[in-house]
Every structure is written in C-alpha cells, then in structure tokens.
Design brief:
Keywords (chain A): 2Fe-2S, Iron, Iron-sulfur, Metal-binding
Structural class of chain B: mainly beta
Cofactor (chain A): FAD
Distance between the termini of chain A: 38 Å
Distance between the termini of chain B: 16 Å
Radius of gyration of chain A: 18 Å
Number of domains of chain A: 2
CATH architecture of one domain in chain B: Alpha-Beta Complex
Largest sheet of chain A: 6 strands, antiparallel
Strand content of chain B: 25-35%
Protein name (chain B): DMSO/TMAO reductase YedYZ molybdopterin-dependent catalytic subunit
CATH topology of one domain in chain B: Sulfite Oxidase, Chain A, domain 2
Pfam family, one (chain B): Oxidored_molyb
Structural class of chain A: alpha/beta
Number of helices of chain B: 2
Strand order of the largest sheet of chain A: 4-3-6-1-2-5
Oligomer: heterodimer
Order of helices and strands of chain B: EEEHEEHEEEEEE
CATH superfamily of the largest domain in chain A: Nucleotide-binding domain of ferredoxin-NADP reductase (FNR) module
Order of helices and strands of chain A: EEEEEHEEHEHEHEHE
CATH superfamily of one domain in chain B: Oxidoreductase, molybdopterin-binding domain
CATH topology of the largest domain in chain A: Rossmann fold
Number of strands of chain B: 11
GO molecular function (chain A): 2 iron, 2 sulfur cluster binding; oxidoreductase activity
CATH architecture of the largest domain in chain A: 3-Layer(aba) Sandwich
Shape of chain A: globular
Helix content of chain B: under 10%
C-alpha cells in the first residue's frame, strides 16, 4: 500500500543560532514517525493572502523515540524568499507545515559497518551532522570546509564529540580566514582528502554535501583517489 | 489552503503562468545528482534501445550526431522546487530514434552511465514530447548537466530527464527507477505536483 507523505503542522519549540547567519529550529511534529540521518523535509509557508512557498531542508537531528523532535538548521540567504523568514522572523510557538521524512539514498543507517567519510562545504554540514549525531561506534571522519572559523556551525558540539567519542575525527578547511596555527586559507584539494579521509582500500562510505562546485570538486577527487563512484553519495544545493 | 505563517509575506512575485504549484523560479542552473559526475569519452559513447524481446538498436557518437536534430525551447521543473523557464537545447527527437523499433511494450526504463535509472511510459517519450540532447544554449552539454547526452522529458519533473543516458529498455510493466524506488512518484507530473509516492 502506498503511504502518503502528508503535511503536518509543526510547532517551533526552541531556536538557537549556530553561526551569525544560520539558525536551528527545533520542531515538534505531531504524528512524526521518525527519520534517518541524511533525510530532508519539505516545508510550506502560506501568506495571509494565500501565497504559498515551498522549500526542502535537511534534518540536523538524529531521531530516536526518546528524542522525537525534528531540528532544521537554516542558512540565511540574503536574497532568499524563505530562509530569511525562518532565520529572522519565526519565533518559538509559531507553526510551520512540514512533510517528510524524504529520501533514502543520501542517508546513513546504523547497520552500515564501513568507515564513514563525510565532506561538508558550508551549510552542507547539516545532514552530515545528523549522521554524526546518530553514530554508534563506527569510525567517522568529517572534513568541513568553511570560510572563516566564525562560519563553522556546531563547532562547540563537534569539539566535544571528538573529545568524548573515540573514533570521530574532524578536520576543518578554512577558505578565507584561518585561525592561528591552522596554516594559510586554502580550498579543499587532493592533499586534504588524502590526509584526512580514509584510504580507498578501507572501502569507506563517502557522503559529500555542499554547493555544486564544491561537491563536484570533492567527488572528482574521491574518484581520482580510487574510491568507487558507487560508494560516493552526493547532495548538492544552490545554483551552478 | 494551509495554515497561515505569521509574518510571512513572500516575494509577491507576479504570478507566472509557466510555474507549476509549489515551484519557484530560478535563473541559475542547479545540479542534482546522486553521485560523482561520470566522464564519458565520445569515442566510447553509445546509446542503445533494447526491446522487450531483446532486440537492440544502437548508435555510436558519429551515427547519433548524424541523425536529424532539432533546437527547441522548453520549461524545466525540478522536484527540489526550482523551475527554469525558456531553456534551449539541441538534440534528436525520440520519435526519430524509435522509427525502426518494433515493440508492444508500454513502459521504458532509461539507463545511464554511472548506474542511474528512471522509468518513463513510452507514450511520454513519443510525438514530440522528448529528446536526447547534446547541446544546451548553443554549447556542448557540460558533464555536470548530463553531457555528453541526456534525456529531456520537459513535461515531467526533471529527474525523469536522465543525465548521461546510454539506453532505453522497453518494459511490459512499469518498474521503479532509482529515485522512484526511494519514494519518489512513479510518473512525476509537476502540474499535479506528483513529487512523492501517494501525491
């Protein structure tokens, strides 16, 4: 039988800024039956004259019966129609229509036993963060490219998880301004992925998410290094 | 009408007759792919129609580009909500490719380099409704956008327009392709907003 993915009225129960321009909305979604890390939701906004806008957003939180909420981290796009509303206007108690969870390809399941390599460009970190939050003992590495240290979302939580959870490594790439001791700013390249990823022999499951150009570059490097294209899952956003 | 979003005004865009429900207009050309972009050398490129009886009709690059081509302008609609109006392509009509194909099957599965698949009913490929294209905006089709050759079925959501296409398999029964098996709609009509199973 076909299961319809229905619209549900979610309530914003908490908000928090992750960077100066990215905000997390914590949603209580009545009837939510759970989600896998990497999945997304569609959201629908309706103006009082009936004008409707829909967008897709990745889920940042890991789901379990004891933590049933859905967290979305929204990056504000200054020329956007929907994201500035979600980052700057929405308040705790507001209702937003959502449906999901959607997608079964760019997901990580805890039955996967292979090492995992996550490569994030900017706000592409969001679905990868859901994977890190859902992780058990599997070895994970995250390469996270940001413009400046201030643009890194979840920085505190990532530091904490690296300290507390053996088997998680995080490497930052700074493209505009690097902190003291981190070397000159650079873009992700073969050396980065060679040094901070897994060797292809380990047959890791690779997930790459970010703007199109970033994902093209990182996925091409992975294939050139010898990773099987079928083990490289990508999710791209933004204009080409 | 859904619940009102407090304080949401939207952009108040003029209503665009070319825009299906739930879509917004983009002037960029976003990319949606499940994996790395395959690079296919033209001398290795080949396109094959396989009928339900196993009969094959194939074209290599030289044969394919020698077929009569058309330049056409259509609107495209991605299930991720963007639409792009007035895109211009050059390629070969599927009517031309199916001219000598004998088949009683009603469905097809498009296959691509890299392993992607998507299902399209045969009727949706014929009578001027679909093309295999090799140029976008007067330029050779970039690999990111599905080059050297992609399928274009503009009246369905754009995931049906398989990038890096290398074959069509005729099927007696409709079967789900890559995204369809993952919960996306079997048919994908943007005007009926058939995004996901059950829509």
């Amino acid at each position: 039988m076909i299961k319809r993915i229905t619209w549900r009225a979610a309530t914003v129960t908490a908000v928090r800024w992750e960077t100066k321009t990215a905000r997390t909305l914590v949603l209580d979604v009545p009837g939510w039956s759970g989600h896998l890390p990497g999945q997304h939701v569609d959201i629908r906004l309706t103006a009082d004259d009936g004008y409707v806008a829909q967008r897709s957003y990745s889920i940042a939180s890991a789901w379990s019966p004891s933590s049933p909420s859905v967290e979305l981290t929204i990056q504000r796009l200054d020329d956007g129609e929907v994201s500035p509303y979600l980052t700057d206007v929405v308040e705790v108690g507001d209702k937003i229509e959502v449906r999901g969870a959607i997608g079964n390809w760019f997901v990580w399941r805890d039955t996967q036993t292979a090492p995992v390599l996550l490569i994030a460009g900017g706000s592409g970190v969001v679905p990868l963060m859901a994977m890190i939050r859902a992780r058990g003992r599997q070895p994970f590495r995250l390469i996270y490219s940001v413009r400046t240290p201030e643009d890194a979302a979840y920085a505190e939580e990532l530091r904490h998880r690296v300290r507390e959870n053996p088997g998680l490594d995080v490497h930052f790439v700074y493209t505009r301004k690097a902190p003291e001791g981190a070397g000159a700013p650079k873009r992700i390249d073969v050396a980065t992925i060679n040094s901070h990823g897994w060797p292809p022999d380990f047959e890791p499951d690779c997930y790459v998410c970010g703007p199109t150009g970033f994902v093209e570059t990182a996925a091409d490097i992975l294939v050139a290094l010898g990773h099987a294209p079928t083990r490289v899952r990508t999710e791209r956003f933004g204009g080409a | 009408m859904g619940i009102i979003s407090r304080g949401f005004g939207g952009r108040r865009r003029e209503s665009l007759p070319g825009l299906p429900p739930g879509q917004y207009l983009t002037h960029d050309f976003p990319v949606l792919s499940a994996g790395p972009t395959p690079r296919i050398p033209l001398d290795k490129w080949k396109f094959t129609i396989t009928t339900e009886t196993g009969e094959k009709h194939s074209w290599d690059w030289k044969e394919f580009t020698a077929l009569p081509s058309e330049e056409f302008t259509v609107d495209i609609h991605c299930v991720t909500k963007w639409s792009k109006l007035g895109t211009t392509w050059k390629g070969v009509s599927l009517d031309t490719l199916f001219e000598d194909v004998e088949s009683a099957a009603d469905y097809t599965m498009a296959h691509s380099y890299g392993g992607y698949t998507t299902n399209v009913p045969l009727d949706d490929l014929l009578e001027g409704k679909a093309w295999l294209v090799y140029e976008f905006d007067g330029e050779p089709l970039h690999p990111e956008h599905g080059g050297p050759v992609r399928l274009i079925v503009p009246h369905l959501y754009f995931w049906k327009s398989a990038k890096w296409v290398n074959g069509l398999e005729m099927l007696n029964d409709d079967e789900p392709g890559f995204w369809e098996a993952g919960g996306y709609h079997m048919y994908g009509d943007p005007w009926r907003e058939q995004r996901y199973q059950g829509d």
